[in-house]
């Protein structure tokens, strides 16, 4: 998702998206290197892992240095996430598994937002986009009862509350904190049986990032895919119920 988002943002004029910082765990992505080589003035790779507080803070410091003294960050997109399955039901979920999923999906997001918040405070748009899933919707849980990804579901429900806490803390400062579900996409995490190609979900994610306003602060939003409004993910472009 992150790679496709970088690719699609580069298709926009530099006046609209001037600089993209791609935070990755390692430097082994040939497609990303190709994008950087083609757009050296617009894409910068930053190495960090969201489950490592020190590396996240170093990433924020590196971005600050590259932005310069008088520039801020406009948008932060948190897309890192992992899942785990326990077909035996909730009682069989190892606490260690749940803790690991939480460390990446929830605490990792906390690390990123807290570290980058000072840069966002000096930016113009002040947007934080946290990628989530409708599997974290408590009211829709019966719809997804056959998916044995308990730790993932619980972590996404927690992410929604984390997003809301930031939204409440910073609404008077002009921030927009959003949780956005990009759909069940054919990624390494989503698998080949997913509903949508990555390009479709990311196109909608990009639209939401660009068009979102402060009036949507704290919301949980779904993408809109015409003809897929009645799909399992219900891609109707509306708010996802908590």
Give a structural overview:
It is a single chain. With 242 residues, the chain is α/β, with parallel strands linked by helices. Helices cover 39% and strands 12% of the residues. It has helices at residues 2-10, 30-38, 53-67, 95-121, 150-170, 198-211; strands at 20-24, 43-47, 75-78, 127-131, 176-181, 220-222. The chain has a 4-stranded parallel beta sheet with strand order 3-4-5-6, sandwiched between helices. Strand 4, helix 5 (150-170) and strand 5 (176-181) form a beta-alpha-beta unit. The longest helix has 27 residues, at 95-121. The radius of gyration is 17 Å and the shape is globular.
> Order of strands across the biggest sheet?
3-4-5-6
Average predicted local confidence, pLDDT? 95
Gyration radius, in Å = 17 Å
Distance between the termini: 24 Å
Strands, total number: 6
**What gross morphology would you assign?**
globular
Strand content: 5-15%
Biggest sheet architecture: 4 strands, parallel
Count of alpha/pi helices? 6
- Helical proportion? 25-40%
The computed structural class is alpha/beta
């Amino acid at each position: 998702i992150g790679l496709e988002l970088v690719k699609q943002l580069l298709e926009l004029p530099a006046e609209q998206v001037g600089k993209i910082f791609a935070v990755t765990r390692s430097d082994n992505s040939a497609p990303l290197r190709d994008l950087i080589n083609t757009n050296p003035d617009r894409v910068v790779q930053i190495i960090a892992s969201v489950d490592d507080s020190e590396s996240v803070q170093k990433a924020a410091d590196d971005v600050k240095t590259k932005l310069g003294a008088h520039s801020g960050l406009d948008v932060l997109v948190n897309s890192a996430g992992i899942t785990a399955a326990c077909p035996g039901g909730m009682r069989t979920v190892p606490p260690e598994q749940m803790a690991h999923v939480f460390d990446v999906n929830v605490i990792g997001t906390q690390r990123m937002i807290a570290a980058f918040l000072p840069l966002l405070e000096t930016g113009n748009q002040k947007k934080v986009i946290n990628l989530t899933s409708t599997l974290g919707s408590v009211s829709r849980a019966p719809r997804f009862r056959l998916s044995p990804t308990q730790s993932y579901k619980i972590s996404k429900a927690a992410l929604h509350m984390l997003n809301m806490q930031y939204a409440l803390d910073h609404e008077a400062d002009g921030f927009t904190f959003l949780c956005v579900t990009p759909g069940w996409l054919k990624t390494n995490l989503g698998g080949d049986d997913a509903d949508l190609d990555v390009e479709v979900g990311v196109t909608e994610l990009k639209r939401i990032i660009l068009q979102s306003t402060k009036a949507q602060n704290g919301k949980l939003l779904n993408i809109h895919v015409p003809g897929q409004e009645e799909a399992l993910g219900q891609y109707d472009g509306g708010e996802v119920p908590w």
